[in-house]
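User: quick one
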Amino acid sequence: MRAELLSRVLSLLPDPAHAERPELAAYHAMLRDYPARGGKGIRSDLLLASARAHGVQTGPAWEGALWLAAALELFQNWVLIHDDIEDDSEERRGRPALHRLHGVPLAINAGDGLHAYMWAAVHRAGVPGAMEAFLEMIHRTAEGQHLDLGWVEAREWRLAEGDYLDMVRLKTAYYTVVVPLQLGALAAGAAPHPDFLPAGLALGAAFQIRDDVLNLNGDAQKYGKEIGGDLLEGKRTLIVLHWLAHAPAGQREAFLTQMHRDRPDKDPAVIADIHRWLLESGSVAYAQAYADREAVTGLAALEGALAGAANPQAAQDLLGAMRTLATRDH
Amino acid sequence: MRAELLSRVLSLLPDPAHAERPELAAYHAMLRDYPARGGKGIRSDLLLASARAHGVQTGPAWEGALWLAAALELFQNWVLIHDDIEDDSEERRGRPALHRLHGVPLAINAGDGLHAYMWAAVHRAGVPGAMEAFLEMIHRTAEGQHLDLGWVEAREWRLAEGDYLDMVRLKTAYYTVVVPLQLGALAAGAAPHPDFLPAGLALGAAFQIRDDVLNLNGDAQKYGKEIGGDLLEGKRTLIVLHWLAHAPAGQREAFLTQMHRDRPDKDPAVIADIHRWLLESGSVAYAQAYADREAVTGLAALEGALAGAANPQAAQDLLGAMRTLATRDH
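Assistant: Done. Structure below.
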């Protein structure tokens, strides 16, 4: 996230130095922790690129776009606090997850507090339609998260490609691409193009599938997360579901045995075998080809939706940024 | 909560019968679970009484008040879902807590989803100033919750009366009394009287201290919660803090030994002894007298604030309801 945007996010949050009690200073520091760790700022960059494509670059409309960008970053951060608890993740951006530092109860509460500050940013933006867009975003993201967590809870692996795509569109694609595109239009006072929905769902799916691929075969240095981490966490991916449908029975059984164990009880040697089987199977290439097709479909739809953009050059920049995102190597 | 208000709350939530996948029907059922269990509707009743005192009884302003009342109930319910996880409570309104039915990850997520539906109700109300009031309410409630949970986490019992009161004002009094009074005014298009703040903080403290007293000496049938449950949960109350400052060293040590254990490891016989010591000490009477003074102070301030009320009869009803709440026997 850009330094200027981070300052804007932090300006909305209470300053621990002014807290009335030391415990509240600690709470305020918890609210600032995840945002201050920095993130790539993918969604806020996309929102601002969409605003520029819609002709917004200065003045009150640009201020509105900046507050919406801050709200999107706050969304990402409160969701990550709760996700990290839900997945019992160990780390976030190179440091222990918030609940590992402060315990689950305080971390749930801090996530709730940060959620409210997100709405403060939305309110501050004063952009008509933005509140509805954020409501729809949270509804869909929580539905997608329920699918994902419910499958983990039920140790459910009898899933088809369509199940994975339903989950990814709800959980990732909508908030990562659809909503940033829409918010950029709303900041300009324009009605979001209806094709932002199919375009964003396709591009968001391409983005997530590409992420799943990089998690298996990426460059750890560039990618920034643990290679193979998804396997240890038992994540449902297109790659794994495709592989399960084609793998030899012995490999499939070894996989399901590991996936029925909690993370600390998984056998690292067998996980390494599975990692190798996945890479040697055609499933990674299958998923990559799938992502490429989604990217092509999504970019075409987005190009059409931006055909009459207020700022054609900025619209080209937005398309370029979207293309890079959907085909990234880190 | 009144049946009509419950219908309004449920009308905002998705209908499981229309879900696109069975897992999402289960998620939608989770959203409806706590609201459908019913609650006393204390805060929404108070809000509507305040609206009537401000002259609102029909038309769009009354509709606005009803949506704000629905939003307050949704607030209460999402907070309870997360509170039950944070306290690892077993039951809620006579049934297992949501996380005991579905696991912690799905319950955190459902609480987040319900939080967003609360904002949908606030938005639907269309009452200027309501969004700011809800933001301030969540900020304060989360700060109070942080104090409470932080003390539990740190097993901190070196607390004074003022610490308890800081916590109760932030965590309970503000959302239980201050905000309902303010929202009633806002629904009428009036500026909330500044004395709603001190009045509501005093009345809310009286309400909570009275609840702490009933938890020790109430009639289980009427009170509806487990008598002595606060002791098992290790809750900080004015009674316990007063008693700790005056109890014989042996009793104090026995108490702290139990409080340093998790709930399942507490010794029921010793907890029963402590319960008896508390009842036999002067601390319950001390707390009750404290609550009575807060109630008198709060009612006087509220009476002053309502002196010029648009509807004097409804203002008297509001004062009567507030008096009953602060001095209730169940």
